[in-house]
Amino acid sequence: MMPDEAVLGCAGELVLGTRGAAGPGEVLVRVRGGTETFLAWSDEPLPRGAAVLVVASRGGRQVDVIRWADPLDALAGDAGDAG
Question: 32 and 23 in contact (C-beta within 8 Å)?
Fold first, then answer.
C-alpha cells in the first residue's frame, strides 16, 4: 500500500483514543479541503479528543500521530493583552 503524503503534517483530533503499542485509535484529519478519518497509531496512549499531528503515513488509511498543540492558539490567547 502506498503512503498518503497529503496527510503528513496535518492536524487532527482523536475520535477514538490510541493505546500505544497495544493498538490504534481513530483520528479525524483536516486534509484535501475537508476531513477524513484514519487509523491512528502512537508510541504512547493518547485520549479521545486529543489534538494530534500526523507524522507518518503507513498507507491503507493508517497514520502515525503525536500529541500536538497549535502554537497559534497560544498567540490568540495573548491577543487580548495587546492593547
Answer: no
Write out the H or E segment, with its range, that includes residue 80.
none
Evaluate whether 63 touches 38 at the Cβ level (below 8 Å): yes
Task: Please give the Cα distance from 10 to 23 (Å, whole number).
Answer: 21
Q: How far apart are CA 2 and CA 27, in angstroms?
A: 19
What are the 10-residue block averages of pLDDT along the chain, 83 residues in total? 88 97 96 94 98 95 94 71 52
pTM, 2 dp: 0.83
Cα–Cα distance, 11 to 6 (Å, whole number): 12
Q: Which residue has the cell 476531513?
A: 35
Concatenating the DSSP letter of every residue in 4-50 gives: -GGGTT-EEEEEE-EEGGG--EEEEEEETTEEEEEEEE-SSEE-TT-
